[in-house]
Amino acid sequence: MTSDQAPPDMTVTIEPARDWTAQSSNIAGVGYDEATKTLEVRFQNATRYRYGGVPADVAEPLLVSLGDASRPRLTDGTPAAFSPGSYLYTAIKLSHPVQQCLRSWAELDA
Questions:
Q1: How confident is the model at residue 99 (pLDDT cuts 50, 70, 90)?
Q2: How many helices (H) and strands (E) does the chain have?
Q3: Does residue 92 fall inside a structural domain?
Q4: How far apart are CA 101 and CA 104, in angstroms?
């Protein structure tokens, strides 16, 4: 296992950084801890998963807002279509270790 494929850090507290609720049928929100390269994804059904060894540049598309200038753009300058669920699958799920969190963000807020 390389350093980029480290298991997710289950001890660090990760605050929600991006709300996808209105734009994704599957992903509700994401958070990222740069120090441990741990990406946490909250799904619409309130389950949470952590992915380990995720570089910041790979996590970034899930963390930026829809109007952010760093989003990919078409040649005419308009933002390119982006599916957070498809991106999660192709860029993260297929190549990074994952572990389900036992408590949802909603349970942590209660």
A1: very high
A2: 3, 5
A3: yes
A4: 7
